[in-house]
Amino acid sequence: MKTDASVRSAARSLRAANYPVPVFLASGEVTLSPEAAVDVAKLVPGWCVDVASQATRRPLTRRLKIAGVKVEEAGDGESVQVTLAPLSSELKN
Hints:
By secondary structure, this protein is an alpha+beta fold. It has one domain. It contains two helices and three strands; from the N terminus they run H-E-E-E-H. The mean pLDDT is 77.
């Protein structure tokens, strides 16, 4: 039989596990600012980069792993595309 105390405890646990609501960042649309304090030599798959966004409804900061780097040379300069992925520890949730 459920008691009032056990129901309240379960509700507190459920709220603690789900608040704040998890935020997922899809890296397909992420670009690094040309002014980002990132050394190009450190854009190596497996390394991590700290990402912050103010474009979401609430501020978002995450450490993401570099999954891939693609460099293309254009007539007026070069373009560096970085693919980011969540850290493996975040995937276990």
